[in-house]
Amino acid sequence: MPKIDLGAIEPVNKTGYPPPFDEPVAGRWQRRLGAINGMTHLGANHVTLKPGAWSSQRHWHEGEDEFLVMLSGEAVLIEDEGETVLHPGDCVAWPAGVRNGHHLVNRSTVDCAFICFSAGDRQEGGAYSDIDMVFTRDGYFHRDGTPYPIRK
Amino acid sequence: MPKIDLGAIEPVNKTGYPPPFDEPVAGRWQRRLGAINGMTHLGANHVTLKPGAWSSQRHWHEGEDEFLVMLSGEAVLIEDEGETVLHPGDCVAWPAGVRNGHHLVNRSTVDCAFICFSAGDRQEGGAYSDIDMVFTRDGYFHRDGTPYPIRK
How confident is the model at residue A104 (pLDDT cuts 50, 70, 90)? Predict the structure, then answer.
C-alpha cells in the first residue's frame, strides 16, 4: 500500500442537502479516502473549499467522533463560542454527542484544504445548529419530524 | 471546542514493547489527541520522531484501520513492497486485516512529525513482520504463544 495519490481521485461536490441549504456547499470538493482504500471503520475525507464555500451546514453528530487536520490555506471555524481562524497543521476534535455545531468557511480569496476523519455510528444522526433541520439514518427532517424532499 | 493546543500536551516516549524491541522507538514522542479531547471511537496520535527513531516495530492490525498524515520533515515508510519517502501532506491508509506490515523510520538529521488515526477493534490484535512477536488483547507473545515479560 503506497502513499495515496490524491491527484488520481476525482473530487466531487455533490450533497444530499435539500435546497436552499445546498448552496453554500457548492464550492466544496471532496475526495473520499477511506472506503476507496479499503477502510471499513475509519472515515477520511479530503476536502477543498473554494473561496466562499462552507464545509457543511453547522452541525454535530450524536454518535460519531470527527477530527480535522488543516492542510493548506486558511479557513474560519465557527462554533457556539465564536470563530477561530485555522492554518495548516491546526487540528480540531469534535467528540460524538457534544451538541456544539461546527463548520468551516473559506473567507479567503484562494482555495483551502483539510482532511476530516470520522469514526463511530453515523446512523445515530445529529442536527444542524442554525437551520430547521436534523439528520437521521433515514434522511433530513424538520425539527417537527416532517421530512425534507429527497434529493435525486 | 477551539483548535487543539499541541504545545499544551506533554509528549511521552513510553512503550510496552519488551526489550530489545523498545530501543528503536525510544526517540518516538507521542501526544494522544483522541481520548484527551473526549473522543471514544476515533484514535488520533500526534507523533514526533527524532533522527533515527522508528514509529513502531513493523506491524499490522487485524481489526483496526490506520491512516497517517505527514505534517513536517521527512520519513521513510517501509512495507512488504519496499520503501517510500513521505513528505508533508502525504497520506497513507492501512485497512484492518491487510497483513502488510508498515512503519516509518526517520533517516534524516532533523525531527519529523505526523498524525496517525485509528478506528475499529484494537482487541483483535495483530503481528509484527520482522520479529518473533504478535500482540493480542492480553499483551505481547512469541509466535509459539509464549508470553513476553510484561513491562512495568
Answer: very high
For residue A109, count CB atoms less than 10 angstroms from its CB and return exposed for 0-12, middle for 13-18, buried for 19 or more.
exposed
Q: Do B41 and A102 touch (CB under 8 A)?
A: no
Domains and CATH numbers, chain A: 17-141 (2.60.120.10)
Q: What is the pLDDT of residues B129-138, one digit of tens each?
A: 999 999 999 9
Choosing among A85, A91, A92, A100, which should be mutated to test the B contact, i.e. which has the most B CBs within 10 A?
A91
Centroid of chain to Cα A135? 13
Among A112, A130, A141, smallest CA distance to A59 is for: A130
Chain B residues whose C-beta sits inside 8 Å of any chain A C-beta: 1-4, 6, 33-34, 37-42, 44, 46, 64-67, 69, 71-72, 77, 79, 81, 84, 86, 89-96, 98, 100, 102, 115, 117-121
- Collapse the DSSP code of B50 into the 3-class scheme (helix H, G, I; strand E, B; otherwise coil) and give the result: coil
CA distances from A57 to A21, A77, A115, A133, A145 (A): 7, 12, 17, 10, 19
State the sign of the Cα–Cα–Cα–Cα dihedral A116, A71, B97, B118: negative
B20: cell is 530489545
Q: Hey, what's the torsion of the CAs at A77, A80, A81, A87, to 10 degrees?
A: -10
Q: Over 70: is that where the pLDDT of A1 sits? A: no
Q: Are B91 and A4 inside 8 Å of each other by CB?
A: yes
Q: Is residue A151's pLDDT more than 90?
A: no
